[in-house]
Request: fold
Amino acid sequence: MVTAEHLTRVFDQRVAVRDLSLSVRAGEIVALLGPNGAGKTTTMRMLAGLILPTAGRITINNVELSESTAGKARSSVGLLTEAPGLWERLPVRLNLLTYARLQGVERPEGRVDEALAQVDLAGRADDSAGRLSKGLKQRVAIARALLHRPPVLLLDEPTSGLDPASARQIRDLILELRSQGRAILVTTHNLAEAEELSDRIAVLQTSLLALDTPAALRKAKAGTHVVIEFEGGELIERPIGNGLAIPDIVAALVSEGRRIVRVTPEQRSLEQVYLDLVQGGP
Reply:
């Protein structure tokens, strides 16, 4: 659905994104992680067709993005920015109707009703946007992104600043949207959320540092120690690597007459893997 090939974006001689290649398939969620200033928002803006890359190529729903095709490509994308950007004094329905008409959506009234139902807000359609909680405003913003039935969703920090219950509702909604076959790229600083939501994770720090499933990323950055449990409950920790493998450690301990109950390789969390990547660790 979305393919980026060797994207680079330069602002006033500052490289914001360098040689980035990634794709998001239909029915897939890819989480884009990285520290502040890593190029995540710039990447989202390029993929949404709001700015063009300095170099590289973007294809959205089989349309190659260019100045002449930007409008057509954008019609396949629903964008959620970090700030909902609603007209606070207007009712929810009128907010969405206004956006739908600005976007040229056909039969806007029906599409607004459909989008409200998708985010479970039909009962709040006549409430002023300014009276809604932040979580409900975020759901209205997602409804706005769905008005033109886009196959691609770009969600920038969709749960930022939300309480746990509201964040849970937004995550459930994102998973439901994936089940409908949409290609979804989401940025987040919440690593537990990224692991729960995503099929694959991309780690960006101007350049792409890693792109794989959460399990594969943890495995690639496997631990450097094992924990060994002996009869009687004694636990010891031993380093591995540099030519020393787990069978070697076990054989040496057995030769000493030790009775081993369990050998457990160190499990790396996604947070540890992420920090290793962005801090240049092993």
